């Protein structure tokens, strides 16, 4: 566990559409682009080993901007393939708000960020006092059935609420803007409510049979 004072003002950022990292979550990544290979090599030279995941946003005309909020992860797993690609794991530490991008000589992007709004991210697991597991699992079962997905239901039934909700938020096949909404939820209760609403909307909009 890191302390708030350990978090730097400037971090390397990895814009990746549809990829969601949450505090205390784990995100595996396959790195092969030269600029991000360089980012990993530079990251490994630092004590904190931090990389900021963030959603890019497409603007009219094709320009790409960054979302306002991302989540930084500590590089906790690393292996190299024979052809020079990296397989890494980021462990989520805290969300951040982008203040400005930093121009520099690195091939990857960097940003000055603020951690002020996310003090609760650095600490013990959150709890959701209003979490009612049986109705939530029923909704999840309907969603998985309509999507043709499968999972270890026994493990899900026994999982702590933060692990369950955050893992689903990170892994379910949702649109990038939906992933961003889950990231920006103020707390675990808000994230669970947002996740449930997204699953309900998908079931209503497409029908529970033949969802694409």
UniProtKB/TrEMBL annotation:
GO terms for biological process: proteolysis. Transmembrane segments: none annotated. It comes from the Bacteria. The keyword Mitochondrion does not apply. GO terms for molecular function: peptidase activity. Residues 11-203 form the Lon N-terminal domain. The keyword Transferase does not apply. SUPFAM superfamilies: PUA domain-like. Pfam families: LON_substr_bdg. Gene3D superfamilies: LON domain-like. Keywords: Hydrolase, Protease. This is ATP-dependent protease. The lineage of its organism: Bacteria, Pseudomonadati, Pseudomonadota, Alphaproteobacteria, Rhodobacterales.
């Amino acid at each position: 566990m890191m302390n708030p004072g350990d978090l730097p003002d400037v971090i390397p950022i990895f814009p990746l559409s549809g990829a969601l990292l949450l505090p205390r979550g784990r995100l595996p990544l396959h790195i092969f682009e030269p600029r991000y290979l360089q980012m990993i090599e530079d990251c490994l030279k630092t004590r904190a080993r931090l990389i900021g995941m963030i959603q890019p946003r497409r603007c009219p005309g094709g320009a790409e901007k960054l979302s306002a909020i991302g989540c930084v992860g500590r590089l906790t797993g690393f292996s190299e393939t024979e052809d020079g690609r990296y397989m890494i794991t980021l462990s989520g530490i805290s969300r951040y708000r982008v203040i400005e991008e930093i121009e520099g000589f690195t091939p990857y992007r960097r940003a000055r960020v603020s951690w002020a709004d996310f003090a609760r991210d650095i600490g013990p697991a959150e709890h959701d006092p209003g979490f009612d597991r049986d109705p939530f699992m029923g909704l999840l079962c309907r969603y998985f059935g309509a999507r043709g997905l499968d999972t270890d239901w026994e493990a899900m039934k026994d999982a702590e609420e933060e692990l369950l909700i955050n893992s689903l938020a990170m892994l379910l096949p949702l649109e990038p803007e939906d992933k961003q909404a889950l990231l920006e939820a103020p707390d675990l209760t808000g994230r669970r409510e947002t996740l449930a609403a997204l699953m309900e909307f998908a079931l209503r909009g497409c029908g529970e049979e033949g969802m694409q």
